[in-house]
Amino acid sequence: MLKTAYLNELHFTTTQQKGSSGPDVRRVQEWLCLNALRYPTAALTTSLDGEFGPATKLAVQNFQAVLKLPKTGIVTPDLFTKLSAPLATGFQARPASKDIRKAIVQLGQTHLKQRSAELQCADGQNLGPWVRSYCDGLDGSLFKWCAGFVQSILDQAASSAGRPFTDIMPRTLSCDTLALSGQATGRLIRSEAVRKNPQRVRPGDVFLLRTSTPADDWYHTGLITAISDDVVETIEGNTDLKGGSNGTAVFSRVRNFRKTTLDVFTIDGL
């Protein structure tokens, strides 16, 4: 794979416990908060302050209880592996299908099932290990991560077939850069053409939402998993239940392409 920042998120070699402090403690806290999405009945959410105090210790003990482990409140490398298992499962999955389009859909669904999400705190939004993995080590309020999510999935699918996703698009975190490259190479199917001939759109293609005034501006992207009638089904990152373009997680959605200015970047030839 070209996008390998996720490996840094899985690397953890030093035991952390009450009294510890620093970046590794914050990483533990991040994963406690993210696992709260997977185990909603367990009290796992704690502050992201990098200080291993009594609250973090109790949250660790609660996570250990969920897994039926001794409640030591100590985070060893082995326990961190369990905390960060969703990321490893998402990024290290290999598609069952050799068909590139089916592979893209399968991998997108894998990330969706792992409850891929960002974190928010006083430092801002678009934070955490999932965002950094999608955005080449970057996170923070400036980094909307929908394009990073799309390219991570394309990278996984293409690399499993022994080729780079950059054969068809530049590596970027920008929706505009992605769309303009497709426009330059003839891969971008404009919304008007999609509405006229929806058969041109296939699962595995990339959608891009666009404003047309005062000028073209692409502001959100995701993967198309199915198309029928006037709608596409999608998997997309950095969205929410309202379908926003700067949300909190990976969601599967239904979007009406006749009521939305939705362009499509075809992955033919990947």
How does this structure look, described?
The structure is a single chain. By secondary structure, the protein is of the alpha+beta class. It folds into two domains: 6-88, Orthogonal Bundle (Muramoyl-pentapeptide Carboxypeptidase, domain 1); 95-265, endopeptidase fold (from Nostoc punctiforme) (Alpha-Beta Complex), CATH 3.90.1720. The chain has ten helices and eight strands. α6 (100-113) packs across α8 (146-160). The two termini are 14 Å apart. It holds the Pfam family PG_binding_1.
Features:
two-stranded antiparallel sheet, 37% helix, alpha+beta, Peptidoglycan-bd-like, Muramoyl-pentapeptide Carboxypeptidase, domain 1, six-stranded antiparallel β-sheet, 2 domains, PGBDSf, Peptidoglycan binding domain-containing protein, 8 strands, PGBD-like_sf, 270 residues, endopeptidase fold (from Nostoc punctiforme)
Indicate the CATH class of the largest domain: Alpha Beta
**What form results from the Cα inertia axes?**
elongated
Number of domains: 2
Taking all Cα atoms into account, the compactness measure Rg is 20 Å
**Low-confidence runs of at least 5 consecutive residues:** none
Counted beta strands: 8
Strand order of the largest sheet: 3-8-4-5-6-7
- The topology string of helices and strands comes to HHHHHHEEHHHEHEEEEE
Q: Report the helical percentage.
A: 25-40%
Computed structural class: alpha+beta
CATH architecture of the largest domain: Alpha-Beta Complex
